[in-house]
Amino acid sequence: MPTPKCLAEINRAVGRELTDDEADDLFTELRRRQQRRRRERANESAEESFLNAAGEIADEKVAAAIIAKRNAALNLRRKLEALDYVRTQFPDAPALGLEALMTGVNRKRTGARFSADAEQRQLAGHYAQGFIADVERSGLWNIFVSGELDDEIARALWQLDRKAPNFEGISNNAQTLGEAVHKWQEIARHDANRSGAWIKKLPGYIARQSHDTFKIRTVSFEEWRDFIVERLDERTFDNLLGDTTPEKFLRSVYDGLASGVHFANPADGAPNAFKGANNVARDMSADRLLHFKDANAWSAYNKRFGVGSFREAVLFGLERTAKNTGLMRVWGPNARQNFDDLFQSLLKDARRAAPQRAADLQNDLSWLENRFDEIDGSVNIPGNVMFSKWAAIIRAIQSMAKLGGAVLSAIADIPIAASELRFQGVGFLESHLIPLSAIAKGRGTRQQREILGMIGVTMDGMRGAVLHRFSGHDDLPGAMSKWMRTFFKWNGLTWWTDAMRASVGYAMSSRLAARRNASWASLDDDLKRSLEAFGLDSGKWDLLRRTDVKRAEGTAFMVPEQAREIGDEAAKAYLTGKGFKGSGPQVRRLKEEIESQLRSYFVDRVEFAVIQPDARTQSILRQGTRPGTVNGELMRFVTQFKSFPTAVLTKSVGRELYGRGADSLGQALRSGNGEMRGLVNLIIGTTVFGYLAGAAKDLAKGRTPRDPNSFKTWFAAMAQGGGAGIYGDFLFGEVRNRFGGSVLDTLAGPTAGAFSDIVDLYGRVRDGDDPSAAALSTFINNAPGANLFYTRAALDYLVLYQLREAMSPGYLRRLEKRLEKENAQTFLIKPSSAIPTGGGSRLFEGVR
Q1: Angle, nearest 10°, between helix axes 310-331 and 116-137?
Q2: Handedness of CA 681, 684, 688, 689 (dihedral sign)
Q3: Cβ pair 134, 349 in contact under 8 A
Q4: pLDDT tens, 619-648?
Q5: Inter-residue contact 127 to 319 (CB < 8 Å)
Q6: pTM
Q7: In this structure, what DSSP letter does residue 237 have?
Q8: What is the pLDDT of residues 190-206, one digit of tens each?
Q9: Which residues pair with 703 in a beta bridge?
Q10: Torsion of CA 35, 41, 43, 48, to 10 degrees
Q11: Torsion-angle region of residue 573: left (phi > 0), alpha (psi -120 to 50) or beta?
Q12: Which of 151, 496, 619, 668 is 20 to 30 Å from 705 at the Cα level?
């Protein structure tokens, strides 16, 4: 049992006498800590180590009490704020109010876009692009990405935060990069702690440890154990209870990692002050489970059994923290409980108002829970990890097989971006010139990319995200993720998306800076409406425009970090005008709020201009189903490539219909606030650029563009640009969708189309038909990289047409006739003129 001195100290911290069971548990914990202290501090006597261990526990008990009180206050505050917001902004549509707080809605209501999803995305962009800008400023980005200094950077991070860091053998470049990583990890940690977490500063922290299930399953437990055990610090086994031996503990860890089922440390973790199921703050605050001896041990394990590169580990860790912090900022540390409590409060309101309203709200609960599953990440927890990963690999292969010409389809992004800029008040001509300028400017200069870091607009090509635009997630093993990044780099889509985002982001920021001398009243209504959607008002605008703008390449930019320069007295005056005391903490929170709101404005509206599926889009498509389950994977296969067109509908079309004040479709059609004009301009713009995209794809295939005088051509162009939806191609005679898929590809997803082709091959073999031509087509349509737009024509004439003609004599003449009959098109060089019936080639006749 603990000594009387120990018990007295603990009792003072707890504020009461401990029970016998608590005292027994405390004795076990004291013995564990005493042993650890004696290993680490040989000069301490047994009694000294025991008393010091008791002091540690006492401090933690006091800290736990403080955390519990603070988080209770934070939870209550967020719940009351959310309840007040829904009651005031959405009194007749509480479900929409809840959705606004989770994922944002296209309604002309104050703060309707300043959601948890917006907070998550602006923080993720701030951390990732801010870190990238710092590394670029040091001139070391290429070195960092190459991975050549990964081990040295890890050693530098291991030394940072130690009382006497030792950088011997670590180059200056590695130290600089380590300091940049450490800086942004600390920024993210502090933000999380202010929002409700209690993440301790851990000397020797490098990055969040990942575990590749595929790699771990390729070795036996004994091989994995022998590799890791010699690299683990003894602290790993300090928390074992009862008869759990290190061998049993490591076995349970291996089984969990190999199966993909995450496990919880039974003894060590977050402080017990975090209450409630699915407590975000508790999960963030839990201690690490595996402690490595040093940086070399960490690096060795990460290379052998980790997921991705060191860069991915760093950026993934920052993004994960951003998601949790953004959720807590809106919904509190115990976010799920707050959602449940808020729903019940609103349900009571509805029952008092009208029974039918309560019934309607109760019916809305299912899709509201789906929205919450997206923002808290529970929808991404796999039912079966291996099933989930293999399914993700299959979809990735289909992406690389089908999206070789996606950058040509992306030409239709230009009118979509222009429509967003017009919604914010930019003139017609300028709104088109801004995205068009992206072709010449690309990602901008290094100084300009620093501005992107400040406003939170990320460069996918630099942070390594590749699938968000079409799949909304990047849940891939390391090797496949690397191949995907390479593929999208080769097909040009990464560069195009980055350049478009940069161009729109620069324009929005410089436009605000150019209007900094204007009062709120003199700003155009479209811009004010856009800012109000994120909670910015006249008072906050006045506070912002009194601060100094940032400059890059001679251009002034307004950036969120200017909020930090707001004078305390000015901020206090704003708060007192709103009925607050204007205390120091309130002033600090106001500055943080303005910074978050302005950055959310940039990030959110840029992703409206250059369409990126958000949590709302994914919730509609995935319907709360989880990966690694039958329903979840079927849903993900069926909706593959549908994230983009769905996002166009929910974002671009939804914005035009409801973003100017209409609350229903009928009201939008008759209100006269510009809804129909905006919608018509969007459809016309996407149709015109859809024709250009289709013409570019035809030329890349060696065909003449479709006849612009044909009525049928413009319907196909409307579908290509997105104006008629993803089914327009088939309704008006085109047999391929905008990404090259068939009707089955579009309705059931490309994987179902591939499966159908395989079944067809089986049927041909069974019936005694020659399957060679069909097998070749199936292979080509599902071969990653075979459809790259700039190599496909050459591949066709040099190889594929030869093979098709040899397998099916007369194939090329039939292809030419079919193309002319269905689409009134011809080939620039007729395949039959280059390749004779039955095969062979005339391409090089006369060349000696």
Answers
A1: 140
A2: positive
A3: no
A4: 999 999 999 899 999 999 988 888 888 888
A5: yes
A6: 0.85
A7: G
A8: 999 889 888 877 777 88
A9: 827
A10: -50
A11: alpha
A12: 496
